[in-house]
Design goal:
The complex is a heterodimer. Chain A is α/β, with parallel strands linked by helices. Chain A is built from 17 helices and 22 strands. Chain A is globular, with a radius of gyration of 24 Å. The chains are: A alpha/beta, B mainly alpha. The structure holds adenosine-5'-diphosphate and magnesium ion.
Chain lengths: 507, 310
Amino acid sequence: MQETYLVELKNITKRFPGVTANDKVNFNVRKGEIHVLLGENGSGKSTLMSILSGLYRPDEGEIIVRGIKMVFRSPRNAISAGIGMVHQHFKLIDSFSVAENVILGDDRTAPVLNIKDVENNLAQLSARYGLDINPSSMVWQLSVGEKQRVEIVKMLYRGSQVLILDEPTAVLTPQEADKLFRNLREMAGTGRGIVVITHKLNEVMEIADRVTVLRRGKAVATLERGQFNRTDLAWLMVGQDVVLQNKKKSPPGQRKVLELKGVGCLNDLGRNCLQDVSFTVHQGEIFGIAGVAGNGQRELAEVIAGLRRATEGSIIVNGTDITGFSPRRVIDHGVALVPEDRLGTGLIPNMGAVDNLVLKDYRRREMSRGPFLNRRKAYEKVKQLVNRFEIKLSSLDAPVKLMSGGNLQRLLLAREITSNPKLLIAVYPVRGLDIKATEAVHNLLLEQRERGMAILLISEDLEEIFKLSDRIGVLCGGRITGIIPSEMTDIEEIGLLMMGGTGEMVL
Amino acid sequence: MNQEILVAILATAVTAGTPILYAALGEILAERAGVLNLGVEGMMLAGAVSGFIFATKTSSPWTGLLIAMLAGGLLAAIHAFLTVTLKANQVVSGLALTMFGTGLSGYIGKSYVGMPLPVPFHKVSVPVLSDIPFIGPVLFNHDPMVYLSYILVPVLWFFIFRTRSGLHLRAVGENPAAADSMGINVFLTRYIYVIIGGMLAGMGGAYLSLHYVPSWMENITAGRGWIAVALVIFATWNPVNALWGSYFFGGIDALGFRLQTMNVTISPHFLKMLPYLFTVVVLVLVTKRNMLNRIGSPRALGLPYDREER
Ligand SMILES: Nc1ncnc2c1ncn2[C@@H]1O[C@H](COP(=O)(O)OP(=O)(O)O)[C@@H](O)[C@H]1O
Ligand SMILES: [Mg+2]
């Protein structure tokens, strides 16, 4: 007899303009298992699970819940069928309380709200699964880890039997991730089916009862625990051998390029965000800033680039105090920024590559003819860059928003690197890129380091930090909780510093 | 100034504020759902003219009111279709609606201009309450539509902030993607509240032609729809604040009127300008205050929702 799964996806195909995100994918979930969906960035994991949770409608294929074929018109249908998803970008309403978020869309809620009752129920529910949350807090006050717990409780409250988590550890410290995995194991123990999306091999090894590997939208294998090892999985995921070479590094120089002395600033809400931040970055050094996203990373980059006002302390670049300088003067002093959101702050989505590249160069003599741009020159320069940095684009004038993440990042790096900065600030430089593009970006950064550039690397991916950095500074709650040379520390220690430097928070 | 004049001014403030109040309440609902509707002026005019025509034909202001609601709701439905279903720009669609409503009402109402309304809404003093000194004549010596608004304000407040449907309404305006992922029908919700908003705007218009004036003339609203739109910000999307705000603007209107009758030598044009001038001033002050207290508009205000868009 055929096995009945909690849910089963059969021959799912989903096309977006220009890409087939899922191509005849089969996937199923058993009672009580943790099933990992593994694949590189862009391989279609989120799309597949968004189909299972009713957010997207498949172009072809069937969804079968406990043996019965279903059509999900909206997440509502999926939720009533017992399927709940915690999206990578949380779907919470900041101005609502935890309890208000949880009861959204639930028909069992009384027409006239009785929040106290709900809060009591929630307190019980979250205690039962060891997910500690305060039902009456406002969501905007929560840390990322807490928000994630709220998302999980939301789905448990709606009675989800299949719980899907999209890259849940991306926003957690290693210790928080361990705790989450223990929680998930407990939930699986109650007969639920858990799906964890990831692109990290160690997570598969740690928690998977089964793993399904997606590559370019196709499911290339489904394996039981015991049938897989790291090397096989890496091969299945990328489809070719991955050589992660670590380039021989020359030691960093002695000259200080960037020096922060007791810098503080406010966040967008006008609250203290950075406090007493001090560190130095030397010539030919990559200084990595580790920390859970939202602990002041973006603000740190902005304060140095002159995009945010420092409320205290001073920022010194190459011996000049640049505190309070306008972004333009900061640029003139040799600081380049590769910001967090490539398409928002970094590049102008609807403009072509040429226009985007001259954005910073237009003031230079050779780019202009009197008050006008010298477009021929601009085209020549861009062509050179495109060749040198191996950027793939359909045309020099096509809007850059159509480019893939890896090419966008190369374009942005090309622009910043060729401006010959003394200091390059790279914020989450490989976020959302696949392995090949990641390697390309990393090699670019290492090359610049060899040439003597000082690089401030801000990342939430500890592996990346360890791979590239000479020294690591840990940012927690807007303070630097430690600065350690990378060969003298390990992920565990950095993880502890990320939580404020004490071991007490580890349960 | 003696008390009699003060009572008269305050009572006029209430009647002058009532059409703005209806329109603002409607706009609060639409904006709470995340849809900016700049067609308020147009919807009010449509309500005013259709209400007047039907009230004339049937000799019943209540029928007129009902038709005015239908007319406002119908125009709003067009806005909902354009902005929610077709995801058109809300500002452009709203402006178009105002122009459409203005033109259409002028055309339809041509032969009714200046005609007196046979049976307008009459004043009915509320027994007992109207006998309270000062408060009675200010608040309880009005027409039924004023009383209706007294009920509507707390009801809407309770609905928005204390009921499940109100929570869903706010969720859709704050973060439609989150609302959608929890199984709330974002499109339906937006349609419903945009249309109800239009009905309330229609009522606001009808109040002008069925009681305040009471007659039809072209562009009878004279910018009140725009004041209502501004008032929504002033009221921080809260019906109770909208009540105070409307009466405040009504009061300025009434004051200007009074000053004219009291032979104060200020140009009547200047006095007529006052409410609009105050709108600008108040908007500047309030926006600053809201920024400081972090009272924002609904987060998703003005943004179309597309489930499959990144
Ligand atoms: N809403 C969308 N609109 C257009 N293209 C999309 C959308 N979502 C995903 N894609 C594309 O589909 C492919 C798979 O994306 P996704 O499922 O997010 O991958 P993963 O979660 O594995 O990183 C990518 O090429 C991505 O660019
Ligand atoms: Mg994804």
